[in-house]
Amino acid sequence: MLGKLMKYDMRYMARILPWLYLGGVFLSLLVTGGIMLFSNDLVMIFGMEIVLQVLSLGIEAIAVCSTIFMIVRIYRNMFSDEGYLTFTLPVKTGDIINSKILTGAIWTFFSYIVSAVMAAIPAAAVIFKLTVSFGDGGSSLLKALDWIAGLFIEVLKTSPIKVFTMIALFVIIAAALMFYGPSLYSFCAAVTHKAKKARAFASIGMFIGISYAIMFVLSAVVIAVYIIGITSFDRIYGEIGGLLPTSFSMFGSLEGAAAELIGVFMDLAIAAMLIIAIVLSGVTVFSWLMSLRITKRKLNLN
Amino acid sequence: MALIEYRNLTKRYGAITALAGIDLDIPAGRIVGLLGPNGSGKTTLIKLTAGLLTPTAGKVYINGREPGPESKAEIAYLPERSYMSEWMSVQAFVDYFADFYRDFDRVKATEMLTRLGIDIKRTLKTLSKGTKEKVQLVLVMSRAAKAYFLDEPIAGVDPAARDYILNTIIRNYSENASVIISTHLIYDIENVLDDAVFLKDGQIVLADSADNIRENTGKSVDMLFREVFRC
Fold first, then answer.
1. Closest approach of chain B CAs to the CA of A128, in angstroms?
2. d(Cα A15, Cα A224) in Å, to the nearest integer?
């Protein structure tokens, strides 16, 4: 029955989101067209800025719209009048919740892909234009890219466990974020469904409030981790501003110094990512379990 | 064993008691009128049976089981409001019911909708309120359920529509099934009732067969209702 429930949940989301995604890609192509028309100097100055703006706006728009549609689907299908049909279907209550959460996660995943495509299109255009803009036919740009690639290989050689830990944590955070929205909103809607008035607003308010509280706490924790890390780093190597020039001899090469520097920041990143992964996964699992418990044992559709 | 059993069923909303310790058995194959004024607990009783509310105390048993997926597969529930998504077409709802209810008769539903002149390709949002109610009724009555719980099916509709609704119910409920109709419009349904349950302030004040009521009181169920619930 979970498959059947998901079929209808997916169908609801599929009414609008694919069009939104197409619109996003179209916007990205428009921006890319603009970049290609710019003179080289303008591209140098504004190109990357535009890419970053498109990336952030695109991701925000796609994420916000996906979340809104997910919220509307969860609330309407479970806790408005439609709930009278949903909760009288011969299916387990857990399947109803799981269907909403899985569907929301799948569409969030689609949003990731679309956001990446939206960013990649103008980014590729900018790289192409930059390559052309160099008088040497792009060989200096390729050298710079080679250097960056060499740096990453160096980091991978010196700290493979750290790199893989970061990748693993990144995957966990991305997965937790996919399930976070639908799980947390299901929980908020389940908690507020007994309210006499303004249930939808109450659930959305609770969702936004908890999300901001989590963001605030995580930001504070991440900043604290970096302050602690940088302070330690500073204590060991002296003034951070003079670090690189005075320390090259210690490492034997520029790549070695940079790799060492990156290694220290990776430690900080791992610590921060670990905290984010634990908090997001914890909130997601707690929300999921509580929404199951409330709808199974305390459902009261008014 | 009764098809539906209520044991000390109680439902409170904060300080308000909607149902106060209901004990009732509904056997199979009966048409039961759940009768009472607004706020007497009719809808609460039906929603508890359908699994939309959690009892404060007591139990509901449907065919010996508490409300759950198995009992929901045996109950056809028609709420007092439209529970259909506006964006879906009538055809999509026929498919939806066919997907989830094994006892749903797609051919019967399509025939009834065609007879009503409803274009099944139209979405719900393009239909009038009355037509939506008819679609919902057709879908519910196209199931071969063991019990039909119909909450105020004839409230707020014109007499012609009322006749259509009652005829649809009587002609289409499956044999040996129970039909529980909640209403305060007794006159319209009295002729089809086997049993009547009077609810007042969350308590049963009378539960008997319609024939017994008429025989013992010398009054019609409608007349007795007016007497019992006189303001």
1. 45
2. 43
